[in-house]
Every structure is written in structure tokens, then in C-alpha cells.
Amino acid sequence: xxxAARSRHSDTRQQILxxxxxxxxxxGFAAVGLNEILKTAGVxxxxxxxxxxxxxxxxxxxxxxYFDQYMAMLEEQLGNEQQPAVDRVVSYFDNWKxxxxxxxxxxxxxxxxxxxxxxxxxxxxxxxxxxxTHRVINRIARVVQEAADKQEIHINDDAKTVTQELYYLxxxxxxxxxxxxxxxxxxxxxxxxxxxLGLSRPAV
Length: 204
Known about the structure:
The structure is a single chain. This protein has 204 residues and is an all-alpha fold. The protein has 2 domains: 1-51, Arc Repressor Mutant, subunit A (Orthogonal Bundle), CATH 1.10.10; 55-196, Orthogonal Bundle (Tetracycline Repressor, domain 2). The chain has helices spanning 3-27, 34-41, 48-51, 55-78, 85-101, 110-118, 123-149, 159-180, 184-196. The longest helix is centred in the middle third of the chain and has 27 residues, at 123-149. It starts with a helix and ends in an 8-residue tail after the last helix.
């Protein structure tokens, strides 16, 4: 495959993944047919297996692509060392809250959308979710540790444990925001975050 062909292959594959993500956020994984994805993406129906071995392989690649994009966003939010580490942590979760509060009936997080559905459906997708969430937690934990080292926060446990607690709390709060059709759980999660980090200031 020459360079131009590789580029077209990559572009088409990415187009399928980008299109599918929006559809699956709305409908879930099992409910979406390949024909709907390919038609929306403007890709010939018979070409799917040219890019993916199976729908399960496609689902795993979809999740890996999602986490790659998420990690790039996370690095942009957390990587500014000119800003105090605690502000980066609180700002990250405040942005999470804001993004989920706009329309509580619409899923915006692929982790929340697919975790309950695919963990029993596909081992490879479960592993992709597990690996991806570990990547997110580890990156946030680095900034929590930085904030602790600089005495910007006060925590009694190691940064990884604290970050896991916070991440699990926020995933659950996001799910309950969808269940309840109101953002109360996310406001509670933000208050809990400030308490867990030993912040005297009110939640953002």
C-alpha cells in the first residue's frame, strides 16, 4: 500500500469511527447497525470489513480512539504547569460538570454509555474500557500528586487512591444525572471533591 492509499485508508477508517461515536452515544452499541453507521459516514456498505475484522473489533477500536482523543484533551487541561496544580484538578472536574449539565437526557461520555452494556457483551471491549479508564485515572493522579507535593491540597491517602475514589464517584454521578434528568448528583460530587482534597473554598 503506497502513502496515498494508506492516507485514504486512515481517513476513511477515522471517518467511520467519528461518525459511529455520535450515533452510539445516542443509541448504544448493540442497537446500532453497521449499515446505519456506514450510510451516515458516506462509506460503501461492503467496505466495513476492509477496515475492521468484526463489529466487536470495531467496538474495541472505537473505544481506543475515544480514549486517545480524551487523553489529548486531558493533557491540554492538566498539562499547563504555569497554573497551580489544584486549580487544574478542580477545573477539570468543573468542566466535566458543566459538559454534563447542559442536557441531562443526552449522553456525552462513552464510558458511561457503554460500561454497563458491553462488559458482558465483549471481553475485548471490556478490556478497552478498563485500559482507557486506567489511563485517565493515572493522568489525573499525577496532578493530584503534584498538588499534594506543593501542599496545595491535604490528603491522607496516596494520590492514586484519592483519584480513583473521585473518578468512580464522578462516573456514578454522571450516570445518576442521566437517570434523574437533573444535575444534582454532579453538584454533590463537586462538593465531595472539595472535601476529599481538603479545600476550604466552596465548589466552583
